[in-house]
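G., before I forget:
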Amino acid sequence: MLRVAFLVPLLPLAGFVTLVFSGRRLGNPLAGWLATLTVAGSFVVTVVVFIGLFQLPATGRSYTQTWFTWISAGHLHVDMGLLVDPLSMTMAAFVTGVGALIHLYSIGYMEHDEDFPKFFLYMNLFVAAMLLLVLADNFLLLFLGWEGVGVCSYFLIGFWFERDSASSAAKKAMIFNRIGDSAFLVALFLIYERTGSLEYHAVFARLGSVGEPSLVAIGLLLFAGAVGKSAQIPLYPWLADAMEGPTPVSALIHAATMVTAGVYLMCRINPILYRAPDAAHVVAIVGAATALLGATIACAQNDIKKILAYSTISQLGYMFLAAGIGAYDAAIFLMLTHAFYKALLFLGAGSVIHAMNDDQDVKSMGALARLMPITAVTFLIGWLSIGGVPVLSGFWSKGDVLLNGYAFSPALWVVGALTAVLTAYYLGRAYLLVFRGQQRWVEGRETGDAAGRNPHDPSWVMSLPLVVLGALSALGGLINLPIHPDLDFLDRWLSPVFASRLLQHHWGIGGVWTFALVDAVLAVLGVGLAVAVWGRTSERPAFEPVFLRRAWYIDWAYDRFIARTSSEVAVETSSVVEAKGIDGAVNGFAWLVRATGRQLRKVQTGYVRNYALGLTAGLVLVLAYVLTRAS
Amino acid sequence: MSLVAGVPILSSLVASVTFVTPHVNYVAILPELILIGGALVLLVSGQLVFAKVPTAFYSVGSGAVAAAALAASLVLWHDVQARGPFTAIADSVAVDGFAIVFLVLVSCILILGSVIANDFLIREGTSGPEYHVLALLAGSGAMLMASANDLILIFVALEIMSIPLYVLAGMDLKRRESGEAAMKYFVLGAFSSAIFVYGIALVYGATGSVNLPQIASYLSSNFVMSNGVLLAGLGLLLVGFGFKVSAVPFHMWTPDVYQGAPTPVTGFMIAIAKAGGFAALLRVFFSTFGTLRTDWQPLLWVIAIVTLLLGAIGGLVQHDVKRMLAYSSINHAGFILVGLAAATAQGISGSVYYVFVYAFLVLGSFAVITVVGGRGDLEHDLDAYRGLGRRQPALALAFTLLLLGQTGVPFTTGFLAKLYVISAAVRAHSYALAIVAMLSATIAAAFYLRLVFLMYGVRLPFGTGSDAGSLSLSITGDEPDALEPAQAAPRRANLGPVSVPGPTALAILVTVAVTIVFGIWPGPLVDFVRAAGLLF
């Protein structure tokens, strides 16, 4: 059963290739269905492999499938190989599962788009790259997937590239990611230089002979890569701008899958982080800071997708916090449940945006619940789940992180708890402004405008994913219940990967229940605050301070001090250094060569006597030289 | 009286000296014998029939003879691989892998050359076996140069190769330039031969032998106290070889002769003279005078640098394609010298590889030029290539690939050739030479690519945009040099369709295939050349 693992990334890749060559011919909606089926097929294969892996004894749940030798140059040997283990299969399962639902949703969402086949082509390539990333058995292949998802993200954010804002957002994403990627590359060089391999097993087996400073450097460089990909401080601003892409893209890439690649990487390199605690602490602190920062900014945004974007940044911070303190299973648990409810929230937001004729401002919505019941209910589940209301999935996964955080350091718990309250609050604000309160928009029916706003729940292809994701968001916690040692399925499933490197805590059942109670109080606090503040009105300037609306002026500072300054340097370089210096040198050299050629031509008279003279002159020079050598 | 008195003395001399004729191992020189015998048969066979023999008959005959020589060479290759290299005929002929690579190469040049010449001879209405007979004889000379193990034999082979080439250069009676080329080549060739012979004499004087291994063993076992004579002889030999391979400053005949000679002859001449000349040059300098390398290396270093640069720079200002490629051949000679200047086994095999692949590149290129030249062999101005990509796409594509090969673009044999010699130079720590070589390749790329742009009608952004723009050195955008005769009396180039005869098309295809296939899949050819070790 494990043998079919190669089909997991191959199916979406095949879909991509098919769409490249015949996407236009398949057209709308066939291209979308094909893309959806390849990803769904990949999900089925993943489940088969998953079951196969499950049947093995816990300690033997690791299987490497090598396709072929990718690179063999000197001592560098890299295989095109897949690593099937509990961690990679968990990732693959949710990437393909959530990915398939989002593909399905996109068939409806993109139905009026001219470039319908092209959209699915990118989506399929994205899923293939992401699967390569999580299934790779070596760092280089992981990097290939890493870059693959990066470039697909660029294509998809800039999908509507006719808009200036979209193309510049795509560029921004690319540039921020490149900064992280360059650190990643340096990390690869360092890993190879220190261990002589890039293959996980070999690298991890040789860590004992690598000094701690090198391990800290490797850990921090890889983390820098993760910071770029997963939008952590200081490389997070691109994710907010990435909302220029179509909403399903935001759901798939910028919430559920790609941005979690950094967290996956941290979990994958747990042996390195274990031996380099300093690097791990940096991961935890940056994660905690990002969680709080993202949550505060999300409180004051009016664009529904930006609220969700900053929320994603904040939730990713939680995951890094968990990974940094060694609670890898908590990080993965949160990643899973986050994939459910964040995808749900994004898709719900997409339905709302569709209904509002592409308006994304929550202040001009309101009272949509009665017109869009399915969307409203699922969005409500999403809110309560991410807010950590018992017994929805977010309650369990966030509780797991906070519990471990306290075990590591109460300070981290305080930051986490504060973020938890804010999370429940800002999404409550979003829900209330969109679905409750006064209607702040005009129905098309009333104005007689046929193309006006006539909100309604979307067709089944869009609603089905909402319902499925809603159910998963509500019940996803069941996979890992901490209340009884027999119910934490996920922890036990992942334990072979992390072994003894996990953070240990000894709360006992009583301690766990106490934390659960505190978490519930925090969630209720946040929900209550949201209802109290935004339950009736849509204007509360005191709760939307300018510095939060402007995202702590960090974007502005980036723009002012980095983007503009480097643009000026670039302009200067191009007009002065390039034009006068480099071009001048090139042209000058060409002129020199040509002038020399013209002079040389004068020697070529065509007379034999001149040529004989030349020959003789050469002869004399040669003889003169050899005679200086004669003794 | 004196005559009568002299007879007994003479007869006693004759009686006292017994000539021991060496044992002749005919198999060792079988390829050469096949070529010479084949040439003689071709020469007379046509006269035995009274009907007019079609040109194609001689071409096929010549090709068959060359193919037989190729087969004989491969048999020798097999022998050498099985039993190791050996010498024959009183040690004057070396049969080693090095020689056989050149035997194979010369056979291939002859086969392709006879195909290309066939269409040319038919187009120009030239009948008779002379072209092919001369080509086969020149080929036998080139082969002998590669396998000669004796300075005297090298000289004889040099003449066997050169004299037919002089005649071939002057074959086109309709063009005055052809005769002029033959004359210049002959006079200067004779001059250089004289220098070469004098070099042999000095080397003999210093070492007491003309046999290459004997010279080498003498040099390694004796310390020559007063080595002025030896070094002078070495210098003279270098001048003689330098002339044949058109190394600067012994190159001045090259542009005139290559431009004046009939086009297929030019291609053949470059390929064959480079093969023969470099074969002997590499063998003599690397293996015979290897112990003196500290003396000749600086000399070759300088010659390689000026050859590289002059070839590249000179090519830039030409308006005649043949003349341009003549300078290009000088530049290529510089690259081959880079391998020798490294004076390592790697450098030598780099040079051999370079000669091998360059022969195909230059044959193919001149086949294209022959076709474009049209009846009368006149259309060689750059103008004639304007829009060739539209008029004759396949031909233009082939020419483009061949030119890219000469430029040294990756995935062509030309790239690997440049890579091998330059990396040999780098390993021998002659960094300056490596840098100059790369620089010269960049300069040369300008004129190769200008031709490509011209064929595809690319308007160069830095050109003047006028009709003359593409003729000038486009990089600076200046007007063409008004002094150039071709410009003083402009003749409208024939821009009509170009017809490519089938056999020539096939020959061009083969050269392109060799260039591209062995560029992408270099293994077989590289291994073949690597296995071509020198005898000693």
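Strands of chain B lie at 86-88, 93-95. The first strand of chain B starts at residue 86 and ends at 88.

More on Monday.
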